[in-house]
Design goal:
Elements (H helix, E strand, L loop, with lengths): L5 E5 L11 H4 L4 H11 L4 E5 L3 H14 L2 E5 L8 H8 L5 E5 L21 E4 L5 H13 L1
Parallel strand pairs: 1-2, 1-3, 3-4, 4-5
Helix pairs in contact: 2-5, 3-4
This protein binds ligand CA2.
Ligand CA2 binds next to loops.
Length: 143
Amino acid sequence: MSAPAIHVLNGPNLNLLGQREPHIYGATTLAEVEHMCRAAARGPLEFHQTNHEGAMIERIHAARETAAGIVINPAGWTFRSVAILDALKTFDGPIIELHISNIHARDPIYHDSLISAVATAVIAGLGAAGYPVAVQAMYGLIG
Ligand code: CA2
């Protein structure tokens, strides 16, 4: 049987990773993060970023067809988007919610994730290194 596919999905502004606020998000670019994820993958891996909520919802719908597991950094949608939450509810496999920063150590507006309710696991505060950790951990969740 072929290795299961993992989809790594990134929300708004993460295209600027490594270019702004390095004291919070580090100096690693999103292209480097993608490389780290591919190095950790044992099978097919899709990696996407979008600044558009509808496009993210369509990515999640596409994952329903082809992904065994989703790693998602919903970025600013984490705290506000019932639509992203509803889309993730339609996915049957494991979901890892990932944040580069430790959202719980930040301003209160970053504390209450809507997404955690449907996440199998949450990773926060490991910096960009959290991404390959999430990819590796996903294989354990997929079984
Ligand atoms: O720590 C994370 O990964 C976050 O998901 C990042 C979001 C923030 O709203 C979450 O609370 C935590 C913000 C992403 C903004 O992306 C930037 C990337 C580089 C420079 C500036 C912003």
